[in-house]
Amino acid sequence: MTDTLHPALARQFDSLEQQTEAATLGMWVFLVTEVLFFGGLFVTYAVYRAFYPAAFAAASHELDLVLGATNTAVLITSSLTMALAVHAAQLGQRRPLLIFLVLTMLLGTVFLGIKAVEYYHKFAEHHVPGAAFQFEKEYARHAQIFFSLYFIMTGLHALHMVIGIGVLLVMLFWSWRGTITVEYSSPIEISGLYWHFVDIVWIFLFPLLYLIGRHA
Amino acid sequence: MAGTVFLPPRHYLNEEYGIASWLLTRDHKRIALLYLAGVTFFFFIGGAFAVLIRLELATPVGDLVSDETYNKLFTMHGVTMVFFFLIPAIPSVLGNFLIPIMIGAKDLAFPKLNLASWYIYLIGGLFTTYAIVTGGLDTGWTFYTPFSTVSSTTKVIPAALGIFITGFSSILTGLNFIVTIHRMRAPGLTWFRLPLFIWSHYATSLIMVLGTPVIAITLLLVAAERVFHFGFFDPALGGDPVLFQHLFWFYSHPAVYIMILPAMGVVSELVAAFCRKPVFGYRFVAFASLAIAVLGFLVWGHHMFVAGQSVYAALIFSILSFLVAIPSAVKVFNWTATMYKGSVAWETPMLYAIGFIGLFTIGGLTGLFLAAIGLDVHVTDTYFIIAHFHYIMVGGTIMAYLGGLHYWWPKISGRLYNEWLAKFSALVIFLGFNLTFFPQFVLGYLGMPRRYHAYPAEFQVLNVLSSAGASILGVGYLIPMAYLMWSLRYGHVAGSNPWGAVGLEWNTTSPPPTENFAETPVVTWDAYDYHAPAASQT
Amino acid sequence: MAGRVDALYFFLIGIAVFFSLLIAGLIVFYAVKYRRRAPAEIGADIHGSLLLEIGWSGIPLLITMVIFVWGASVFFAMARPPDDALNIYVVGKQWMWKFQHLDGQREIDELHVPLGRPVKLTMTSEDVIHDFFVPAFRVKADVLPGRYTTVWFEPTVPGRYHLFCAEYCGTKHSGMIGQVVVMEPSEYQTWLSGGAPEGSLASAGAKLFADLACNTCHRPDAQGRGPVLEGLFGKSVLLQNGETVVVDEAYVRESILTPSAKITSGFQPIMPTFQGLVTEEQLLELVEYIKSLQGLPQVPPR
């Protein structure tokens, strides 16, 4: 039972509470579909790693562990700033909210920048699959499969990051405009869910792609 | 029922006029009609390909079209029918229209997403239509590799992209339905008071949401392999073509349950309404829908019994395939039992429902033939399979779709159609269907492989019977188009409950107002409760 | 085998006819008996019966399990060729079937086999997936590029039988057909001696083995850098990663094309790949040659 109609209340819902619950459930269902979407790629990766372990290990060693680990730290930190943004939104603290959103977006951009550098290195070392691909002859055919998976999986992940940054841009605008209030902080929470999911995908990608056969 | 029926002065169709009010609508009922236009268009495209196929197959030699053209015909028939008609039809037309109304809500949870889903469907359709029109696709709707990634010279990439894009329409529709059913039921409407149509669509939505992403990524990989020569599915580059089959069928088997579960939901509604009795074993039917959705994800390998899987994998898929048949059988028995001591009316929707039960039973029983590995080895990749799935998809899904369209037509349009023409068409469709597809079971057992442009002369008689049936079936499908359109203008006014049925949709006007109900209903009765006076307020 | 498949088929027809008639009959019967007699009439207030639900779940479950076991048993028999089967190699390509008999006879689109003894076909494809289907024998198996698959049958009646490709493979898929010709054993012998100018598969393989210089590393005296192949086929070998694997046709093929995939324990990964240097048919010749070394004593490894 709502006393007054909240400006953000959509006409199909009876209350802001119902709307928030529906939106949150919707995001969770969407994230499940994303798990299945990336899942197909992970299955393909698992199959070929089982078929060609030596070639995959050799190819994995060619990835830049330092850059990859740095990116992992960057993303985990961005999840921290995102969580802090959600917290600020729930407490109605506009300035911290804006700062943490900007920080999250900045860290996301740093991630993409490092990724771009890594892609450039791969291009320079002739590890991009295609006519110019070069690798030690013994493993070349199957290393090419590794790199194909590397580019598709990290590329798809990067695309999701770009979309995430776009979503946060919109959230930044709403926060600045005052649309986000203590009663209506759910858009930030839901964006946070998406952002954390993209982070978790990377947490799986990193060890699977970068850490094959690397003992301490 | 007769006498004081009238069209309400204000309803969702006359609320606003103009192209923009349709193309930018948020109203789930208008979106349902937008989908109706889309799926009908693709049905006729797919149907046209079917006509050409059956014309060619009337003679044993390939004399109507070239072999290249023929390969494109069966491929594009499959692609348009599966992805652009069968998967969206019932959920996006009837589901969209009815789910909010059946649960007493004003709309789906995410109306703008619903509209976006329609546009995504159209854009996907556009890509695929482009592929069809600029040369076609010849990989089979199953895109097996390495033929599709290396050997085919046709428009694989736009077609694959078209299906990829349309898949998101399916995913988002399923997401919308799940959230709506969880969060927007009217006060008093507990899960076990829901109509079985809702249970079926819920189960369908689970499959849409979990399965479709996998084919999305698989087709993306096929397109990528074609462009960049990656080598995931091409043995010449170190890839595994059987991996493609696993990924493809992981979705495409559950996809057939996306095609049949909504149809079963429709049939539950029809049987209850035209026997004026609750569906027998309501909870068992509800749980059977969920069981089918879950088990459906575990049986994909039965499409690959001769593909080179291990014996043990084959055994597991076989036993699970038998298990998934049980909930479907349970539903058939429950529908039949519903008719016992019912008040059975023989109106057109009920004829379609009965047709469904009979034909789905035959189709489903032939599934047992296929789950038995030793027998499947002989009949797989032959016309037996084609007959099996057409019994279920055409004898099943399309019959239920037509039954549902006829049953809810008065609610959707406010008008009644011509009952005699409708009954006549139902009969023509039933007879034409059986004449088309029954001979194909025999053809398959005799050894005629599928996707054959020309065949040994000894198979001709059965092929001619099948083609004759197809011509009858085609005519049967055209007649309802005519009288349904005619009824929009000239049909009798229906009134809010022309069938005397129980269900929230019959407690509002025909057509309904944009917000569905004048007041949100409060539900205190079970589904199909013909003995509760509150249930059927007209 | 065909008889077993047909028996299962007719049993299933019986089940299907029974249940179809049962449901159809009940529906028509109820539709007539309980037809609506007054416009406002409603049906009885019946909701369900646990007993019926258990019954019509349990009985179909029993029936399906019987069918499963029956189907599985037929399948096991199909999956296990007898040890004394006559081996013939099949290479499918767009759009023809190439057959290679052990003694060197080659056929295209027509396969001659003798009556009364099991025949095992080892098959691969040169391009896309095909499927070897002989309806009369109730056998079918996909023919895959990059792998070997097998079927077996035992012809019992002489005659000519349709052979179809049953996995869509492109333009002339419906033209990729042929015949299996079953002959009396004496006629088959006559046909066989009719010609095999190049000699047996194994002898062709021996020549290839020398031409490709395989014999520089694979020496029978265990002095070479590669494992001894004499007497190796059919045995188990220990791999570098600790697994054991049986030396069959697939293993030999893989070892020639992708030697780094499975390295024998105690040896260096130095064998070059022959990917692109040998055709599928040449691979079959090499496989047959290595098989022919089976009877020779194996020199113990270093």
List keywords for this structure.
heterotrimer; B: Cytochrome C Oxidase, Chain A; 16 helices; 66% helix; C: alpha+beta; Cytochrome Bc1 Complex, Chain D, domain 2; 3 domains; five-stranded mixed beta sheet; 6 helices; elongated
Walk me through the structure.
The complex is a heterotrimer of chains A (216), B (538) and C (302). Helix content of chain A is 76%, strand content 0%. Chain A has six helices and no strands. The radius of gyration of chain A is 21 Å and the shape is elongated. With 216 residues, chain A is mostly helical. Chain B is built from 16 helices and no strands. Chain B has helices at 19-23, 28-56, 67-86, 89-102, 111-133, 147-151, 156-183, 196-228, 241-275, 282-296, 311-339, 348-371, 373-379, 383-413, 419-446, 460-490. In chain B, helix 4 packs parallel to helix 7, helix 5 (111-133) runs antiparallel to helix 7 (156-183) and helix 9 (241-275) packs parallel to helix 11 (311-339). Chain C has 302 residues and is of the alpha+beta class. Chain C folds into three domains: 1-14 and 50-80; 86-193, Immunoglobulin-like; 201-292, Cytochrome c-like domain (Cytochrome Bc1 Complex, Chain D, domain 2, Orthogonal Bundle). Chain C is built from six helices and twelve strands. In chain C, helix 1 (2-33) packs antiparallel against helix 2, helix 4 packs across helix 6 (280-292) and helix 5 (249-257) crosses helix 6. At the A-C interface, helix 2 of A face loops of C.
